[in-house]
Amino acid sequence: MRTDKIKILAISGSTRKSSSNINLIKAIALLASESFSISIFEGLTELPHFNPDLDYGQVTEDENVAAFRKQLRDADAVLICTPEYAVGVPGTLKNAIDWTVSTMEFSKKPVALITASTAGTRAHQSLLGTLLIIESKISSATQLLISAIQTKLNSDLQITDEETLDKVNQLIRSLTEIVNGELPESGLLPAPLLN
Ligand SMILES: Cc1cc2nc3c(=O)[nH]c(=O)nc-3n(C[C@H](O)[C@H](O)[C@H](O)COP(=O)(O)O)c2cc1C
């Protein structure tokens, strides 16, 4: 059992100034400050549009892509909080993830996924599939869909809905277990089949 704080890199699929997803990450950082240190990845909009012709793997690369990949590698775990846009994953977030496919920063990385949106089901399923195919470690307890997020979080960064607060606390505990190797591999969600 580790004694230092677990380093989490948090990524918000919304880059909006008063984003509820960014506020949710900040609320989680306050809840979990004893066991986690959470830093928010700020460079999502600086990443170039993904193009395999520009993806040379680890050696030659855009400095923003390199910084993103390094922050992922340095993190013990990743927390993604995202809204749904037009029944899908926000393009900026998917673009960022596509930059990690060849270099595999998500492979074996403990990940918690929260889709916090008006509805969110389709983006959530789609992103889960993506995260599993790139070999992230996710269990059913480290993924959470929060619908009607606007009604469950206040401007003081408090999760006001009790059930949501319980589920978020459970998610944090489960992410800790995965980082500490306390969750058997059989508890992880299996990768989907490509066909
Ligand atoms: C372009 C656009 C498309 C949206 N499409 C959906 C959608 O398909 N499903 C949904 O649940 N919410 C949708 N929403 C609403 C967002 O989920 C909601 O505004 C959410 O709070 C945005 O997250 P944020 O506060 O972190 O920016 C959409 C919002 C925008 C701006």
Protein model, in words:
32% of the residues lie in helices and 14% in strands. The protein is an alpha/beta fold. The chain has one domain: 3-Layer(aba) Sandwich (Rossmann fold). A five-stranded parallel β-sheet has the order 2-1-3-4-5, sandwiched between helices. Helix 1 links the parallel strand 1 (6-12) and strand 2. The chain is globular, with a radius of gyration of 16 Å. The N and C termini lie far apart (40 Å). The model has no long low-confidence stretch (mean pLDDT 94). Bound molecules: flavin mononucleotide (FMN).
| Strand order in the largest sheet | 2-1-3-4-5
Report Rg. 16 Å
Number of strands: 5
- Provide the β-strand percentage band: 5-15%
Key structural traits:
14% strand; binds flavin mononucleotide; 195 residues; 5 strands; Rossmann fold
